[in-house]
Amino acid sequence: MAAKRKKVPASRSRKAKRKTTPSRIGSFIDSVRRQHGAAFARGTMFLVLTAAAVMVVTIGLRAMQRKVLDDQQAAVQREFCVELVGAPDWMPQELHRDIVKNITPGDRNFGSKAFCGEVFKLAKNNPWIADVLNVRKIQTARIDKQNVVIVRAKFRKPFARAPFEGGMVYFDEHGFVLPSRFVPRWETRNGAQHATYLSRYQAPQSAARIHYITVKGVGLVPPIPGEKWNATELAAGIEMIKLVKAKPYAHQITVADVQNYGNRISDTAPQLVYYAQVGRDRQTTIRLGRFPRPEGGDWVVPPETKMQRLDEYVSRNRGRLAGKNEYIDLRFDELIVSVN
Questions:
Q1: Residue 33 CA to chain centroid, in angstroms?
Q2: 167-171 and 160-164 beta bridge pairing
């Protein structure tokens, strides 16, 4: 009968296995011991361990030093101001101050390494800022002297408006909705100097009301300020306004009507219509029709031709667009006007 093998506990087996695999340092010390003796090997071992300990302590001290310096720098509450470089002249002072306030980090931690990143993020999310070009801080050598945070950005200018729930929604030329609270309503011009104001009470006596054409008939509910109003009829209204925005008679056009855009109401009525009116005088309807199809091959009269005919009409009437005729029809090969 074969003799039973005595079982060796797994833990002892693993320990024995570990003992048979010496470390690199152990192998090195054994080699030194065989060549130079035990005393020399002990001295070598002492030097190796000392060098390793010094290296670990040095690395640890450097890490602690960096952390302490960073913490000290972050803890210093330094005075600073934010400057908007390239702020346009159409921007009211109240809006300028509000933007600066809202892009300033709440902890005001100027010394933090993440400070510029925080300012950039806040500016990027501001509804008045279309694009943040760069953010940098100028830190003075003296703690008691004010520092500067320079923000270069492109801003969204109010372009037109649309009625919604008894009020007006303002947006820029790309359809991004803007907070109506800070939209300028009045302006003064004196040569190259241009200033805007939020209300008549703030504006000087010589100020004139800023003319915003109203886009009527947008069916989609507007988004929150800072987001784009993605309505195809609104985009058509914006293109309508762009056609007349630079015209000397633009102030006479009050409404760009897109209610029938895409023939939503009628197949025979014009899709796009302007309304022109001065004060309480008679309103004139300007039948623009529709824009050519982007794929081409369309019979519709080009917008440039329509605007040229409208320019000629205004010129013949000494700058007057509104009130002379009940309607002006630009949809056909020849300009058609009402008999009265």
A1: 71
A2: antiparallel
